[in-house]
Prior knowledge:
Elements: H1 11-69, H2 79-121
Amino acid sequence: MHESIHIKVDYPEAIESKRNMLEAEKSMLEVVRHMRAYDSLRKREFIIKSNIKKDFAQLLSLIYSIEAHIPREETGFTQEKYKKEIKVKEIKKRLQKKVTEQKRNEIEDQISDIQAKLAQLG
């Protein structure tokens, strides 16, 4: 035989428990809804990215075909020179960032020195 245990719960406690259970169920359903929406967005993102990749490939092939028909100067501008120019520009940008960062660090050091002096003065 089964032995049953009964617990006396007041009516307000029972209502509060029921409300808590319903709110938990509602929250779980909202999580499921958000997960489904996330999955849908991820699928759309993948499709969009693949379409962009295809478009870039087509654009690149179009650029190469146009380049093949453009007459070159005597000095000749090659992709290697273009890549080198891009690298030089990137190096210049990095150097500018370093200089800017060093200036910022110097200013921050000066500010911290001034704050220390102010703290000593009270």
